Amino acid sequence: MQEYLSFYINGRWVRPEGRPTLDVINPADEEAFARISLGTAADVDQAVGAARRGFASFSRTSRQERIDLLEAVLSVYLRRADEMADAISKEMGAPLGFAREAQVGAGHGHIAQGIAVLKAMEFEEVVNNTLVVREPIGVVGLITPWNWPMNQVTCKVVPALATGCTMVLKPSEIAPVSSMLFAEIMHEAGVPAGVFNLVNGDGPTVGEAISRHPDIDMVSFTGSTRAGILVAKAAADTVKRVHQELGGKSPNIILDDADLEAAITHGARGCFNNSGQSCNAPTRLLVPRSRQDEAAAIAKRIAEATVAGDPRAPGTTIGPVVSKTQFDKIQGLLEAGIKEGATLVAGGPGRPEGIEKGYYIRPTVFADVTNDMTIAREEIFGPVLSIIPYDSEEEAIAIANDTVYGLSSYVTSGDPERARRIARQIRAGMVHINGAGGDLAAPFGGYKQSGNGREWGRYGFEDFLEVKSMFGYVQ
């Protein structure tokens, strides 16, 4: 078993103040493969102190120094990409090829995009006789999830480094090994002592301590809406800035003039991707009522062609979900869908046939779903697709917006102008039109209970910057 019992603080590996440990479970076989230490508020204090001391000098580094640093990080990251893929596959169950191409690839993309943004971004502007400058906000606390480990670590760490902030990272205790490897990468790349610090631990202890800490100036959190509310409450007493990227229940509107085969195939695969463990997954499939049976048949074929199995085996499409807690939650929601009257088209409760161990979920499709059902309201975070029929374009838009979430959404039409018109009416931070993918230079984030602030590209820099007006500076 691998042991990761130290934290990375002030440029070195240090033993924690306390001695509690936690086994890291491989969800594919339910066996522990690593062990970490669980931090305390005292460990957070030590890390924040190092970050505060480091800020004094790092905040004054030049743009070129930070570009050079990020380029060094990228070089080491790429060299250790196979190690990173292996760690992610073991800790959260992603198929090894997917871990390498998509999971590790997301980190590569964010680092490269951050370098490009830093090279072009203007940090000063003249307004009348005033110089307006954007300065690093200070010490930031970064709390990241388990579902896309390097995606979320890099899209927080990179803008923090690029803007001159120092930081304390708390990765998910469920999938911490990739972040321990990332700390090694930061050290090898020559990140100055105190700039990047990592403390493992759980949310109620380390997450709470970061959120409350008076010497942390901003908290960037990605996770569930429930946990995000707790972070915001803990941060309120010190009036620190809070950036949150939270849950989603994204609608996928297929219009009556769309190529149904192509649109359903794309949407269903997007729902099942990463074992359904993506906050922006298109989990609510809205189709014209007259074509629901046809849509369900297509989705059924995709579900049955999606192979849930060993992440190391060739031919596996999706791996397990991350933990027993997630597995049990999803099983309960599948039962709720059946009990509330949805039609089970494919999949359903239980593990896939032939699998006796591991947190595997059967790729599942429900039809005849109404938007008041539990499976249409709650974020399932598993490979579960809910087909909701509608009778008019106006009803489709109303159903799409009838959710507490507003992270992402999808619209497909044979008429691009019609798709664009509907996209403007959806209350969500992102809309994918006619199958378009994401754009790392564009903002990622949501409306309503999906959070506040934005990540990715230059928009992801903004929460890490304060704005200062120097009146009369320009004569």
Commentary on this structure:
- There is one protein chain.
- The protein has about 475 residues and is of the alpha/beta class.
- The protein has two domains: about 270 residues, Aldehyde Dehydrogenase, Chain A, domain 1; about 190 residues, 3-Layer(aba) Sandwich (Aldehyde Dehydrogenase, Chain A, domain 2), CATH 3.40.309.
- The chain has 14 helices and 23 strands.
- The strands form six sheets. It has a seven-stranded mixed β-sheet with strand order 15-16-17-14-13-19-20, with helices on both faces. It has a six-stranded mixed β-sheet with strand order 10-9-8-11-12-22, sandwiched between helices.
- Helix 1 packs parallel to helix 7, helix 4 packs parallel to helix 5 and helix 7 packs across helix 8.
Helix and strand arrangement:
Elements: E1 2-4, E2 7-9, E3 12-14, E4 21-26, E5 31-37, H1 41-58, H2 63-79, H3 81-92, H4 96-120, E6 124-127, E7 130-136, E8 139-143, H5 149-163, E9 166-170, H6 177-188, E10 196-198, H7 203-212, E11 218-222, H8 225-236, E12 241-245, E13 251-254, H9 260-272, E14 284-288, H10 292-305, H11 324-339, E15 343-346, E16 364-367, H12 374-377, E17 384-390, H13 393-401, E18 405-406, E19 410-412, H14 416-423, E20 432-433, E21 447-448, E22 451-452, E23 465-470
Parallel strand pairs: 1-5, 8-9, 8-11, 9-10, 11-12, 13-14, 13-19, 14-17, 16-17, 19-20
Antiparallel strand pairs: 2-3, 4-5, 6-7, 7-23, 12-22, 15-16, 18-21
EC number: 1.2.1.3
Protein name: aldehyde dehydrogenase (NAD(+))
Domain Aldehyde dehydrogenase: 13-469
